[in-house]
């Protein structure tokens, strides 16, 4: 009962702060749109989420942020609004303008992170992603929005094959105190309105997978980005160099031979890169990619 009362007080204080914050902006900026005012309130909530303090206050601010953002994304202006002042919130859109995906993490005082996500579609539908505990073998599973693994997405790749559109996501997860993880995944929108993650389209050295995972040591700082680079392709008796758009990754190796298979001790080799290129509806693994200057125009810290 005491915990419930404390939580109610926290929510009440946050509500009052948001009202005061919004009123202060309205007095000095009468030309702002309603969505811009909402962004100011959302920005205030993110400052609470990532400030030092009790987890209960940060989680209450995060809950309020999610509620307000969900409501805002049902509006036409909300769907097209850039939200470029929300530092720490990753906002990614598909190239065809069909959907947007918001994702963020909430650091707890224990050192662990909680992950949150929201998807909005062009027809004003909104879906919340609910993080669930990951289990072994999830490279081979299709999962729904209520069984999400938790991730910060930083890139959406839109591909067309025949009559189908394939949406590929690149993401980052602070896996544990010892390792991070990069992820290549597929997001699908079904005709019945359901959303799922994962599809058997990744031709990897270990066989056909639903998603690709890269675990590496915290200090490793491995790259995973979508870029146009050179690939040596056999053509008859000759080897031909072709420029292709690919998902590029560092080639990861153990810190010492005795750590083989313990991926929390893997780091980039430093001179070798692997990749996946898209062909006929599949992402196909390629090794020894020749990497030059990036042509994607951005190199975010989590790429």
Kindly describe this structure.
This protein has 303 residues and is an alpha+beta fold. The protein has a domain at 133-303. 22% of the residues lie in helices and 40% in strands. It has 4 helices and 16 strands. The strands form 3 sheets. Strands 5, 6, 7, 8, 9 and 12 form a 6-stranded antiparallel sheet that branches. Strands 11-10-16-15-14-13 form a 6-stranded mixed sheet, with no helix packed on it. Helix 1 crosses helix 2 (34-49) and helix 1 (2-28) crosses helix 3 (55-72). The longest helix has 27 residues, at 2-28. It starts with a helix and ends in a 17-residue tail after the last strand.
Q: What value does the Rg take, in angstroms?
A: 21 Å
Uncertain spans: 1-12, 19-29, 297-301
User: What general form does the structure show?
Assistant: globular
Mean pLDDT: 87
| Helix-strand topology string | HHHHEEEEEEEEEEEEEEEE
By secondary-structure content and strand pairing, the structural class works out as: alpha+beta
Q: Work out the strand percent.
A: 35-45%
Largest sheet: 6 strands, antiparallel
Q: What level of helicity do the residues show?
A: 10-25%
According to DSSP, the number of beta strands is 16
The end-to-end span amounts to: 45 Å
Query: How many distinct helices?
Result: 4
